[in-house]
Amino acid sequence: MAQRYRILSIDGGGIRGIIPAVVLAEIEQRSGKRIFELFDMFAGTSTGGILSLALAAPGDDRGARWSARDLIALYLENGPVIFRRSLWHRITSAGSILDEKYEASGLESVLKKSFGEAQLSEALVEVLVTAYDIEGRDPFFFKRRKAIQANEDDYPMWEAARATSSAPTYFEPYRLKTESPVGYYALVDGGVFATNPSMCAYADARRFEPTAELVLVSLGTGQLERPIPYEDAKDWGVLEWARPILDVVFDGVADTTDYELRQVLEEGRYFRLQTSLDFGSDAMDDASRTNMRALVQKGEELVQAADRQGFFRDALPLLTGTST
To answer: 107 and 79 in contact (C-beta within 8 Å)?
Structure first.
């Protein structure tokens, strides 16, 4: 019988990472196990990358530093810190036209505090976190496997989290120093090519676990519902398209990846949990108390929908090893 290899993949989506965090908290509650005990690999982009790294970060007791429920609280507490704009930055950026929308200091302070000195090589399971090198013009992957094999690929977890969440127009690219000959990488959010990193995780698992039976759970951060009216968009130029085009690319890539995986993984081994953003804000950076409460509610609704569709009945036995 083939060995089972269990993959958790989490989309990008900024503050909307609250939604998959709520689902993961329910999985922990129902299974009685921490998420790192249920999966062999975490894959994440942007906010999903932060969640993946946090769930794999080691604690003092050789367990996970954070539970999924802890991470919900971290979003609620730190969202306003990450997405905060000083008056001076508003003025000098000319309303985000001349500079990124947010200074990175808030994001970096939260990540440093959350991850401490933890290194990528110390992750409790395999991790695959996406970024994009704008100078080398290549996808960039933070991997535990690479970090263990070579010191030059072993980075502080907080830096990996910072790089994967550098969404263009929101935060400046992250300059990741490296011992390699190039000296540094200039990295932006991996969502530009893999908002939904499930296919990246699938390809990696197929390479390193070629005979394994794959089980993949993919968590979305909310399906965009707000239309872009033709009458508005037909006359847009570069300036008007700058922010909306990110949403179009991120949403399109996520849905395409879902389609591809439904073709290559057999039914009952691939689970995609996604919800529509039919109330609250779909903005990646709306960290208002009202919207964060709405996102928690959307996560709870997704849990209820997943229950009705049999996700917990079908998936949990595969993850806990109680099903053959």
So the answer is: no
Mean pLDDT of the chain: 90
Q: Are strands 174-177 and 184-189 parallel, antiparallel or unpaired?
A: antiparallel
DSSP 8-state symbol, 152:
G
The whole-number pLDDT of residue 77 equals 96
The pLDDT-based confidence of 99 (bands split at 50, 70, 90) is very low
Residue 89 has pLDDT above 70, yes or no: no
Residue 231: is its pLDDT beyond 90? Answer: no
Residue 91 has pLDDT above 70, yes or no: no
Average pLDDT over residues 199-224: 95
- Report residue 29's pLDDT band, with 50, 70 and 90 as the boundaries: very high
Structural Rg of the chain based on CA atoms: 19
Helices 311-320, 289-308: inter-axial angle, 10-degree rounding: 90
Evaluate whether 89 touches 172 at the Cβ level (below 8 Å). no
Q: How many CA atoms lie within 13 A of 54 on its CB side?
A: 28
Q: 311-320 vs 18-31: helix axis angle to the nearest 10? A: 70
Report the SS3 class of residue 123. Answer: coil
> Which residue type sits at 37?
E
What one-character DSSP code corresponds to residue 58? Answer: B
Alpha carbons 265 and 318: distance in angstroms, whole number: 15
Residues of the chain with pLDDT > 70, as a percent, come to 93
Residue 210 has pLDDT above 50, yes or no: yes
Q: Which residues contact 102 (CB under 8 A, 6 or more apart)?
A: 82, 83, 84, 85, 89, 170, 171, 285
Per-residue buried b or exposed e for 279-310, using 16+ beta carbons within 10 Å of the residue's own CB? ebbbbbbbbbeebbebbbebbbbbbeebeeee
Distance in angstroms between the alpha carbons of the first and the last residue of the chain: 9
Contact in structure between 75 and 51 (CB atoms under 8 Å): no
Token reading at 46: 């942007």
